[in-house]
Amino acid sequence: QTVVTQEPSFSVSPGGTVTLTCGLNSGSVSTSHSPTWYQQTPGQAPRTLIYNTNARSSGVPDRFSGSILGNKGALTITGAQADDESHYYCVLYMGRGVSVFGGGTKLTVL
Amino acid sequence: EVQLVESGGDLVQPGGSLTLSCVASGSDFTFSNLWMSWVRQAPGKGLEWVATINQYGSQTFYVDSVKGRFTISRDTPKNSVYLQMNSLRADDTAVYYCARFGRNCTATACYGGWFDPWGQGTLVTVSS
User: Fold this and answer.
1) What pLDDT was estimated at residue B15?
2) Could you say which of A32, A45, A102 has the minimum Cβ distance to residue B112?
3) Residue A33 — φ and ψ, nearest 5°?
4) I need a surface site. Which of A19, A43, B11, B120 has the fewest CB within 10 A?
5) Pairwise CB contact (< 8 Å): A51 & B102
6) Does B104 reach chain A within 8 Å, measured CB to CB?
7) Closest-CA residue in chain B for A56?
8) Beta-carbon neighbour count of residue B55 at 10 Å?
């Protein structure tokens, strides 16, 4: 069974830089998985930040960036702001029409 | 940009059925070219992909937990996609989101996939 792994929680200081990761329980994440990142606040639909590894969605500030780091997908937030405090989810495309979400990371800015 | 609006969420008893609808609107898109998906989120939990349908309606894909119970379909002239849910269980309780399934396509093939944009969701509650 495919499991997509994310850090359950992370903290960053205002103005700091944080990198959240998206891994696989078996194998490495590559661009073929099209790692995609969403930000979600309670009661709201997910907001697409980064899709297809490193493409920034319309209207997303350039302090959000996506990449492959080692064997994981990565979302880097540079110059964190208070309103970045949120849940972040990644999703990987596993082929044959199947997509798997990670469990999400709760980011605290303090 | 395409906008998506879901409807049909309701309170239903275990073992019951429900059909969700999603209508696409906006400018600069051709619904007949779009793959579409449903993603759900149980209360207080993370996101879970549920189903995807290709642009022709000829290919459908499901998470294991709904196979044989849920059916995704589309009506392209109506710019709509549906999720028929049968044999509902308590653990199907969730907000169900409709989303476009984007793909990276060359002249000969498509690769990868991601969900964007999303609708605002519709709540399905399975309880007696």
Assistant:
1) 98
2) A32
3) -85, -5
4) A43
5) yes
6) yes
7) B116
8) 17
pLDDT for position B80: 97
> pLDDT tens digits for B56-84?
999 999 999 999 999 999 999 999 999 99
Task: Establish if B56 touches chain A: CB-CB under 8 angstroms.
Answer: no
The secondary structure of chain A as a DSSP string is ---EE--SEEEE-TT-EEEEEEEESSS---GGG--EEEEE-TTS--EEEEETTTEEPTT--TTEEEEEETTEEEEEEES--GGG-EEEEEEEEEETTEEEE---EEEEE-
- CA-based nearest residue to A61, from A45, A43, A76: A76
Burial class (CB in 10 A: 0-12, 13-18, 19+), B118: buried
Residues of A in contact with B39 (CB under 8 A): 101
Please indicate if any CB of chain A lies within 8 Å of the CB of B44.
Answer: no
pLDDT at B42: 98
| Cα gap A24→A92, rounded to integer Å | 9
- Cα distance between residue A41 and residue A47, in whole Å: 9
Q: What is the pLDDT of residues B29-56, one digit of tens each?
A: 899 999 999 999 999 999 999 999 999 9
Residue A79 is predicted with a pLDDT of 97
Beta carbons of A97 and B61 less than 8 Å apart? yes
Mean pLDDT per 10-residue section of chain A, whose length is 110 residues: 96 97 96 96 96 96 97 98 97 95 97
